[in-house]
Design goal:
The structure is a single chain. By secondary structure, this protein is of the alpha/beta class. It has 7 helices and 17 strands. The strands form 4 sheets. It has a 6-stranded antiparallel barrel with strand order 12-15-14-13-16-17. The protein has a 5-stranded parallel beta sheet with strand order 3-2-1-4-7, sandwiched between helices.
Length: 352
């Protein structure tokens, strides 16, 4: 009987993933990763009590791994530094590669397991070129393939995602049938380590820096008003600016050097392309320098993919969109897909 480690978050998705694998006669072990501690611990992030109760219901062993120091260094510190640098990070993508999968793989090695599994809505496939990749979930509204774009070939090779063909409604029904107490538990919508979704307060607390007010300016440098600190804003933001311009205006750029936030009308926040840095090649091998290939790209989690052409230049991918894209934010992740919804590559959107 093959043994599998299931990452247990305390929610319904991971609970049903564990249940389905047990029904397929895998030897299932539940593991929760405690990623924050002390004053920063947030119950919704790693709900140990719920996860332990689920494992008791399923009759499977359960363990907790403390990786809070690793999480602080490899996820929280880059998150804070990105905002200080005028970028908008996606910490969940970093966490998946550097924390969740690395910790689960280590747990598998120590407990003699052959596989790891999670409750993500996505599918693991092996392409004709021999590479593993992540494919869109059947339920497009819950698809989480974007968040998994940095997983390595070694991690993907031993990963299972039992929910890839299911809807959220089906998952909840399975949980109810199995007598799992978190069947109707609400999904978490916020970044797990930021209390009350107060990004700015968290960043000031962690960095020990109070970010000063500065000028809102237009694209010609004319002063439009005062902002309350650059960490309060992101490219594409419209709400909460406090500027009466007579027309809808948006954040176009964060000018860290001059402590300014550049505002513009909607027409001026569209881009013809972007650059991807620190690229992870997943469904494709690294292309030759200077070569081009077509792909579909998502520039943020809830973005509609658009057709594009990617060209490798050194360590970067230069992306040209087939049609202009609104609010391309440095620090976010650009994920390239093929025509079948399989991830080809993903990287951080850089400043041109």
């Amino acid at each position: 009987m093959s043994k599998v480690i299931v990452g247990m978050s305390g929610g319904v998705d991971s609970a049903v993933a564990a249940y389905l694998l047990k029904m397929k006669e895998y030897d299932v072990i539940g593991v929760t990763l405690r990623i924050v501690s002390g004053e920063e611990e947030v119950s919704r992030c790693c709900e140990v009590d719920d996860a332990r109760r689920v494992c008791e219901t399923l009759g499977i062993p359960y363990y907790v791994r403390n990786c809070s120091a690793r999480f602080s260094q490899q996820v929280i510190e880059p998150f804070v530094e990105a905002y200080r640098s005028g970028r908008t990070p996606n910490p969940c993508i970093l966490c998946n590669r550097r924390i969740k999968w690395e910790e689960l793989v280590e747990a598998a090695a120590s407990l003699g397991a052959q596989y790891v599994a999670t409750g993500h809505y996505a599918k693991i496939v092996r392409l004709e070129n021999g590479r593993y990749t992540v494919q869109n979930a059947d339920n497009a509204s819950k698809d989480q393939s974007y968040m998994l774009c940095r997983l390595s070939q070694e991690q993907l090779a031993i990963t299972m995602m039992p929910l890839g063909e299911l809807s959220k409604e089906e998952v909840r029904k399975i949980a109810e049938y199995a007598g799992i107490h978190v069947a109707n538990k609400a999904d978490s919508q916020e970044i797990c380590f930021v209390p009350d979704d107060d990004y700015a307060g968290f960043i000031e607390y962690r960095s020990g820096v109070t970010f000063q007010e500065g000028d809102f300016v237009d694209t010609d440098g004319n002063v439009l008003g005062r902002h309350k600190g650059i960490i309060h804003y992101t490219v594409g933001q419209r709400k909460g600016l406090g500027i009466a311009a007579g027309i809808p205006i948006y954040v176009k750029e964060i000018d860290v050097e001059n402590n300014r936030v550049v505002l513009a009308d909607e027409e001026k926040i569209y881009s013809s392309g972007c650059v991807l840095k620190t690229v992870n090649y997943m469904g494709m091998a690294e292309p030759e320098d200077g070569s081009e290939f077509p792909a579909r790209i998502k520039i943020r989690y809830h973005h509609r993919p658009v057709n594009a052409v990617a060209r490798r230049e050194g360590d970067e991918l230069i992306i040209t969109f087939d049609e202009p894209v609104k609010a391309v934010a440095p620090g976010q992740t650009g994920v390239l897909y093929d025509e079948n919804g399989c991830v080809l590559a993903g990287g951080e959107i850089g400043k041109k």
